[in-house]
């Protein structure tokens, strides 16, 4: 099958895959207890989805963890909400509250119902350089993504915002700004999760209102480690036919700073200059070694 083309949709790079269901998406009726997990692609969506899924349903629906892939338990708002989640199909064995829903939509495209219902939103951001590297490899292995080209080409496109779901810069900044007017957003960072997953899980728990026992929390921590998720068929995306894990596994490295093995010195300098320009009006700070190297 040919790779899909990137096209501009209301000014944002998209593929058909994510726009075909646009009307349903925009008309989506959120419920007050829905939890939306919002990210720029490759910022840690799967990781945070699994943490929240285990926190909510690990104890009550353990059978589901083994039989339903994570991407069906935490579906994509902009692709397809399974019937059991929309409530039109009664699948009694599946929990329907809270509904965990993920999205890569830039904040201005989020269906208004989420704001009207004052839903909780967990936004995950990842530093630009690692995010770009991860997105590049994802483009290589996922036939539903536009052809990424070589690394240099991809990096230039990333800087130019010619990406599915638009520029990284706008995405992280506009979601950050949203927090100023809509307080029910927990804005978190991939780098913090790597540094201290226990602490980040505690913070997530207080935001969503979970109080796991020490034993439960330990199980969540263990189950959501990179190594465990990489070997878990329900979380590693090996059940998805459009992805070729021989080219690059979905669970690729799971590290902070892998950009150093990809960026040349010249690319890094060029990127930093451009980054400073694009982020100059932003109060958003990535507390990582990447940020330090930009200071
Ligand atoms: P890398 O390509 O850098 O390895 P998303 O889920 O948003 O598509 O993000 C995927 C990225 O998150 C990949 O990054 C993947 O390896 C990483 N990831 C997924 N689960 C992880 C975990 N448990 N720990 C650390 N990184 C994880």
Brief overview, please?
With 295 residues, the protein is α/β, with parallel strands linked by helices. It has helices at residues 16-19, 22-26, 45-57, 62-67, 70-73, 83-86, 112-116, 128-141, 151-160, 168-181, 190-195, 197-208, 214-223, 226-231, 265-278, 289-294, and strands at residues 7-9, 12-14, 35-39, 100-103, 120-125, 185-189.
Give me some keywords for this one.
295 residues, alpha/beta, 4-stranded parallel sheet, two-stranded antiparallel sheet, 16 helices, 6 strands, 45% helix, binds adenosine-3'-5'-diphosphate, Sulfotransferase_dom
Describe this structure in words.
It is an enzyme of class 2 (transferase). Residues 32-282 form the Sulfotransferase domain. With 295 residues, the chain is α/β, with parallel strands linked by helices. The protein contains 16 helices and 6 strands. The chain binds adenosine-3'-5'-diphosphate.
Q: What's the helix count? A: 16
The helix fraction, in percent, is 40-55%
Q: What is the helix/strand order?
A: EEHHEHHHHEHEHHHEHHHHHH
The assigned structural class equals alpha/beta
Which molecules other than protein and nucleic acid are bound?
adenosine-3'-5'-diphosphate
Beta-strand content bin: 5-15%
Number of strands: 6
Termini distance?
A: 44 Å
Sheet with most strands: strand arrangement: 4-3-5-6
Shape: globular
Averaged pLDDT: 93
From the alpha carbons, calculate the radius of gyration and give it in angstroms: 18 Å
Indicate the low-confidence ranges by residue numbers.
none
Strand count, sense and closure of the main sheet?
4 strands, parallel
């Amino acid at each position: 099958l040919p790779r899909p083309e990137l096209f501009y949709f209301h000014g944002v790079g998209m593929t058909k895959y994510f726009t075909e269901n646009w009307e349903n998406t925009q008309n989506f009726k959120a419920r007050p207890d829905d939890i939306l997990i919002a990210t720029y692609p490759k910022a840690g969506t799967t990781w945070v989805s699994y943490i929240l899924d285990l926190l909510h349903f690990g104890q009550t629906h353990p059978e589901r963890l083994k039989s339903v892939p994570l991407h069906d338990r935490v579906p994509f708002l902009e692709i397809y909400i399974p019937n059991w989640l929309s409530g039109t199909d009664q699948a009694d064995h599946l929990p329907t509250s809270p509904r965990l829903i993920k999205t890569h939509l830039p904040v201005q495209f989020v269906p208004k119902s989420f704001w009207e219902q004052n839903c909780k939103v967990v936004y995950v951001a990842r530093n630009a350089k690692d995010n770009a590297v991860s997105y590049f490899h994802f483009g290589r292995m996922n036939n539903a993504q536009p052809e990424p080209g070589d690394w240099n080409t991809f990096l230039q496109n990333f800087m130019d915002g010619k990406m599915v779901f638009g520029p990284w810069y706008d995405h992280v900044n506009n979601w950050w700004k949203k927090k100023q007017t809509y307080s029910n957003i927990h804005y978190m960072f991939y780098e913090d999760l790597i540094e201290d997953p226990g602490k980040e899980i505690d913070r997530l728990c207080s935001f969503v209102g979970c109080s796991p026992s020490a034993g439960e929390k330990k199980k969540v921590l263990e189950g959501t480690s990179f190594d465990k998720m990489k070997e878990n068929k329900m979380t590693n995306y090996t059940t998805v036919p459009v992805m070729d894990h021989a080219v690059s596994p979905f669970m690729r490295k799971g590290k902070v700073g892998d950009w150093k093995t990809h960026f040349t010195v010249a690319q890094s300098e060029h990127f930093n200059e451009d980054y400073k320009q694009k982020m100059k009006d932003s109060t958003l700070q990535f507390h990582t070694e990447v940020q330090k190297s930009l200071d």
